Amino acid sequence: MLLEFGAENFCSFKEGFEVSFQKSKNSTENIANIIAVKGANASGKTNVIKVLSFLRNFTTNSFSMFKPEDDINISSFFRNKRPTTIYAIFLEHKIEYKYELVLTEKKVISE
């Protein structure tokens, strides 16, 4: 179960963002079943979803579809050279995990 995810230097997010499905401490349930993303036109709502799509595709297909010398199709903020960071915190069998990916168009820096 996905608890939280976020990214920095991804598409329209230079400084980054995070989305949490965890409810407040005053709630009787810990995890929200649904959340809403709202904002003005062209404010980055679609890019919030794109980060999950990129993370899913990268973690499931990068070893089978790409060669080590291939560029990574990552959309950084205005194509700057800073690394992009993407993370997800999830719960599996009551154990909390954090996966973090730091990369550029040329290489994976850490995983």
CATH architectural arrangement? 3-Layer(aba) Sandwich
What are the segments in which pLDDT stays under 50 over at least 5 consecutive residues? Answer: none
**How many individual domains?**
1
Q: What is the general shape?
A: globular
Structure description:
- The protein has 1 helix and 5 strands, in the order E-E-H-E-E-E.
- It has 111 residues and is of the alpha+beta class.
- Strands 2-1-3-4-5 form a 5-stranded antiparallel beta sheet, covered by helices on one side.
- A hairpin with a 2-residue loop joins strand 3 (84-92) and strand 4 (95-103).
- The model has no long low-confidence stretch (mean pLDDT 86).
